[in-house]
What does this fold into?
Amino acid sequence: MNLEKEIPARTIERMVLYKRLLADLLSKGQKTLFSHQLAALAHNTSAQVRRDLMTIGYGGSPRKGYHIEELIERISDILDSSSDHLIALVGVGNLGSAILSYFTYSHPGLKIVAAFDTDAGKVNREVFGCPCFPIDCFEEKIRQLGVTLGIITVPAAFAQETADRMVASGIKGILNFAPVPLKLPDHVCNDRIDIASALEKLAYFSERMSQFSAGKANIEHPQHP
It folds into this structure.
């Protein structure tokens, strides 16, 4: 499906979540749902859900809601391409290995075809079904395999160097798990997942919610002397 205007990145993020939630409902036999139901699952508002789906040109029925299978197909038209995106991962430590393990399951349109590391004990073998190569042959393998996306799971001190090699090899999108921002050219898409920052934010809001719940309880059930 061709859209006249580029879809905002935050909308795409929500579409990815919607697709996963809808696929889970479909696997359980559910055929339709309303915007407020999808909003509750996505921790969103029904108004936001309706705006997002209008962005991709899909509308539901006031009486029946959205047809789940059709909606998945429409979102897939936006998210999925006609060919697989081939991915390379650099840094086969604990996190890198966990990601490779996760991708042993089916992820339509996404496939990690190569991993790289500097540790001689990890290379020239398969890790969770993915071939692991020495970092010295990175550029050669990337071009040979036609890789377009990269995942960085190296220590922070080596993240920028790794990103530079990816860019020089023709990789167009980078997912960075290293706890440091990257300097990349404008034509390269990048996203950073900072696990520590996410947990810090989670801790802050969970504490706020605990305080709010405790305060509400005191109001509803005041203790009398």
